[in-house]
Known about the structure:
single chain; 113 residues; mainly beta; 3-stranded antiparallel beta sheet; rod-shaped
Amino acid sequence: RSSDLRIMAExxxxxSKPSACSPFYxxxxxVFKPGPPGNPRxxxxxxxxxxxxxxxxxxxxxxxITGYMVETSLPEEDEWKIVTPPAGLKATSFTIxxxxxxQEYRIQIGRAH
Length: 113
């Protein structure tokens, strides 16, 4: 439920007119973006896959982490490709498949959208 606020001042002479109405405010816990996942590492590799793991962020922003997203990019490209399911991952590890043998990849881990 949202509420607006008006404030009046009072002294020995009486009560003032109310202030202008504030914007609407909603009572809820403040939530911020979480910190980044930590300690990314490679657990295993094959000629067509890499298994990676990471730690949960040290700072969750005041709300439970709901998922992670893993992206890959070739070193010479600026475009990133999401390789995790659209809903993201609950786990803190993932196997990236369909990779080309001896090709270098950049990998980044973020929060699911």
